[in-house]
Design a protein that fits this description.
single chain; alpha+beta; five-stranded antiparallel β-sheet; three-stranded antiparallel β-sheet; 12 strands; 25% helix
């Protein structure tokens, strides 16, 4: 089908483009029940060629990859997830009783290995990759919820950044907080009277929150987020050093 009769692809805004592929909000690899957009909202070129690369790079980010191994289900190919960097790896495997366990391989023994657990360092995150994925999530989320702001011109920067950013461009991205959330979920947090909504994706115990509020309107939102305990990242010049803590817990008698 084509996008004729609509206001165009929600990313490139082209009218009459071919739209035969199914677009999932966020990513089906993040949670199995990722909602689908009706045909016609995303053109095939944006969905299959451009946004699929954004999604793939996000899923390969070191922290997201580890979270997928620990909390996620099977991959689209029906395999248990794994992540590798340099001479290290974290992968999910089945033991002899078909229980899912996490297998960790490191080039050397962890210096902080105790009876309770240990910490491993991950490669630095890729801020631009995360930022582009959250721009994708925002635009698709607004379309899914039927927001009247999905074609708002103030989102044009987010659209372009998701599908084809300029060299050196960076949109401050993430409001993230570790939560005790369900493994997968997706919701619209709120919608301002004069601006786009905030969209939240819950996956692997991490809450990804992205807002379409442009500066300076976003300033008050950022302050509110910081006061509420969110960790706000806004600089591409100093990538955050990542580490992941593994805690060992003895099984209870009921589970033995």
């Amino acid at each position: 089908m084509t996008l004729t009769g609509m206001r165009g692809c929600i990313f490139c805004l082209r009218l009459g483009a071919v739209s035969n592929s199914v677009a999932h909000v966020g990513s089906q690899s993040l949670f199995e029940d990722a909602p689908k957009l009706p045909l016609g909202w995303e053109c095939d070129e944006c969905n299959k060629k451009k946004l699929s690369k954004v999604e793939r790079k996000f899923l390969n980010d070191s922290l997201i990859s580890v979270l997928r191994v620990i909390e996620g289900g099977l991959t689209k190919k029906g395999k248990l997830p794994s992540v590798r960097w340099k001479r290290s790896s974290v992968q999910a495997v089945y033991d002899s009783n078909h229980r899912r366990i996490i297998q960790i391989r490191l080039p050397r023994r962890p210096s902080d290995l105790t009876a309770e657990g240990f910490t491993i360092d991950l490669p630095p995150e890729a801020p631009v990759v995360v930022s582009r994925f959250l721009c994708k999530l925002l635009v698709e989320g607004l379309a899914f919820f039927g927001s009247r702001y999905v074609y708002d011109r103030r989102l044009d920067a987010a659209r372009r950044y998701a599908i084809e950013p300029c060299v050196g461009q960076f949109i401050p991205y993430a409001f993230r907080q570790t939560t005790a959330a369900v493994r997968g979920g997706f919701r619209k947090l709120w919608e301002e009277e004069d601006g786009p909504a905030t969209v939240v994706l819950l996956a692997f115990g991490v809450e990804f929150l992205t807002s379409g509020l442009p500066m300076p309107e976003a300033k008050a939102f950022v302050i509110e987020a910081e006061n509420s305990g969110w960790s706000v990242r806004s600089s591409v010049l100093a990538p955050k050093r990542q580490s992941f803590r593994f805690n060992f817990r003895r099984p209870t008698l009921a589970s033995q």
